[in-house]
Amino acid sequence: MVARRKVAVVGVALSDCGRVDDATPYALHAQAARRALADAGLDRSLVDGFASAGLGTLAPIEVAEYLGLRPTWVDSTSVGGSTWEVMAAHAADAIAAGHARVVLLAYGSTARADVRAGRRTGTFSFGTRGPLQFEAPYGHTLIAKYAMAARRHMIEYGTTIEQLAEVAVQARANAALNPEAMFRTPVTVDDVLAGPMIADPFTKLHCCVRSDGGAAVLLAAAEYVRDCRTAPVWVLGSGEHISHSAMSEWPDFTVSPAAVSGRLAFDRAGVRPSEIDFAEIYDAFTYMTLVTLEDLGFCGKGEGGAFVEKGRLRVEGGELPVNTDGGGLSAQHPGMRGLFLLVEAVRQLRGECGDRQVRRVDGSLPRLTVASGTGGWFCSSGTVVLGAD
To answer: Are 55 and 62 spatial neighbours (Cβ–Cβ below 8 Å)?
Structure first.
């Protein structure tokens, strides 16, 4: 039996992001993958594991073929935005067990360019088969489901629309420090409230941007760390959980599956939420950030509104910087954005983020972070705790 090995993230990268009209999704996968390998300083021949989702009839086989890979370990788990945190957990387990040595996670999407070119519409639909057939007649859109959950939290706990708007305001403040963010102009609570209504209570700025882009993350067994050009970021613990598909089967609209995945990740990492220096949280909508903060244990249930309104999420002066690149609300959101959370988390722990670099009170670099992805309409969650060497 092979002894379990420590696992590190040794390479991360983004492809060109934002407005990319002249590339295919395959090309964005490849660009991000090449950059992640270069970041790590490892040869492609060492990659014997590959994970991807969201592209091709036989994902990830088509993408692996495009990249020239012939992996002996593969994962095509697809659970929406949380896919990448779940895949990272699976990859870490495979490496630790000796089933792979170096695993590449890769994603790419031209969601924005496709709409612009008329290759698809702006309306995202999961279809009407299976359990969805019982909700489709009532007009449930993806955004409407998140809006319903937000409204429930407002009714139960007195959370205000101004508090939800603060999430967007602080995400934009962080994006203003990120030269690669798609939108960097500061906004106010009044700006958020004055926007066009998308799904009550969400106006436009409560919702993520639509962008193009790709990302890649390279995980490796501890024995390969010495061959890398970057400092390792260790996978300390992870958790995953699925909650529901039909909204009627969701027991409580104010509790996300991160309540389970987060507890598992922290327990397995042997750390407490209070020890985390910053957090990367899936934010397709402002409510996702607020409720995930509660469910990960950074504040009590129902206290998210009060927690976010004090500027705590800002890189500059915030007690718990969240979505330090600007998140899906301002930086980029090409679809299943969970891999971007891992890229930003690793860059922050390595001290590579320039003006948006998180620092501890004593000026030192952060040591611990958590990346938590959400998929579907709060249907799934994957949470990963990462630590610097």
So the answer is: yes
- CA 179 to CA 182: how far, in whole Å? 8
Q: Answer for the pair 227, 203: CB distance below 8 angstroms, yes or no.
A: no
Q: Which residues contact 138 (CB under 8 A, 6 or more apart)?
A: none
208 CB-near residues (< 8 Å, 6+ apart): 283, 284, 285, 327, 328, 329, 333, 337
| Interatomic CA distance for residues 330 and 191, integer angstroms | 14
| Per-residue model confidence (pLDDT) at position 271 | 98
Distance CA(360)–CA(366), nearest Å, equals 6
By CB neighbour count within 10 A (0-12 exposed, 13-18 middle, 19+ buried), where does 115 fall? middle
141, burial (CB in 10 Å: exposed 0-12, middle 13-18, buried 19+): middle
Instruction: Work out the average pLDDT over 373-379.
Output: 95
Per-residue HEC secondary structure of 187-231 comes to: CCHHHHHHCCEEECCEEHHHECCCCEEEEEEEEEEHHHHHHCCCC
Q: Is 339 helix (H, G, I), strand (E, B) or coil?
A: helix
Tokens of 223: 């024995």
Two structure tokens written together for 381: 């969650």
- Per residue in 62-91, pLDDT (tens digit) is 999 999 999 999 999 999 999 999 999 999
pLDDT tens-digit readout, 330-347: 999 999 999 999 999 999
Which residue is associated with the tokens 């718990």? 320
Dihedral sign for Cα atoms in the order 74, 14, 114, 145: positive
CA distances from 23 to 16, 27, 120, 151 (A): 9, 6, 16, 39
User: What is the amino acid identity at position 188?
Assistant: T
Say if CB 273 and CB 298 are below 8 A apart. yes
Q: What is the DSSP string of 38-96?
A: HHHT--GGG--EEE--SSSTTTTHHHHHHHT---SEEE---BTBTHHHHHHHHHHHHHH
**Paired tokens of 182:** 């798609």
Each residue's pLDDT tens digit, 155-192: 999 999 999 999 999 999 999 999 999 999 999 999 99
Of 8, 7, 6, residue with least CA distance to 349: 8
- Rounded to whole angstroms, the Cα distance separating 336 from 46 reads 27
